[in-house]
Specification:
This protein has helices spanning about 15-35, 40-55, 60-65, 70-80, 105-110, 115-125, 130-145, and strands spanning about 55-60, 85-90, 100. It is mainly alpha-helical. The chain has a domain at about 35-115: Arc Repressor Mutant, subunit A (Orthogonal Bundle), CATH 1.10.10.10. It has a three-stranded antiparallel β-sheet. Helix 2 (about 40-55) packs across helix 5 (about 105-110). The two termini are about 35 Å apart. The model has no long low-confidence stretch (mean pLDDT about 90).
């Protein structure tokens, strides 16, 4: 029987993909704890932030911006609509398109959420320059890898 070292296969803790995966899990747990007081999940938080940045978005544009498939996004949006955070309506110029916008309640909640990013940043113990540089490098890595994935 061959050991992984004999086959030149690195252990998970020496693989970039595992490091990114482990960091993602840690971020998810951190956000879960921080967002619990607001009654939100991390994907719901992302939807609110995306709509705060640009309100009245097409569902497919929102999905593209957040890298969420429609089978994930549609039930998520339904729950958020039932909670009164967002409103969905058909576009006047093309009824095939559904537009999503923040409600007054959702807009107020996004303001209350302003405390979350600084808490996450503080948890990293990075300087602002390190945080910005790491974010830029990870975004560039994600963009590069997406070019090699067949949709």
């Amino acid at each position: 029987m061959h050991r992984s070292a004999d086959l030149n296969i690195p252990s998970p803790d020496h693989m970039l993909c595992f490091s990114v995966y482990a960091a993602s899990l840690a971020f998810n747990r951190l956000y879960r704890d921080l967002l619990k007081q607001f009654g939100l999940t991390y994907p719901q938080f992302l939807v609110l932030l995306a709509l705060r940045q640009k309100n009245d978005r097409k569902v497919n544009d929102l999905g593209d911006a957040l890298f969420l498939e429609s089978n994930t996004l549609t039930p998520l949006l339904k729950r958020m609509e039932q909670s009164g955070l967002i409103a969905r309506r058909r576009a006047l110029n093309d009824a095939r398109n559904v537009l999503v916008s923040l409600t007054e309640k959702g807009a107020r909640l996004t303001e209350a959420l302003d405390c979350v990013p600084p808490q996450v940043f503080g948890s990293t113990h990075y300087t602002l320059d390190e945080f910005v540089a790491l974010t830029a490098r990870l975004n560039a890595l994600a963009d590069t890898l997406r070019k090699h994935v067949h949709a």
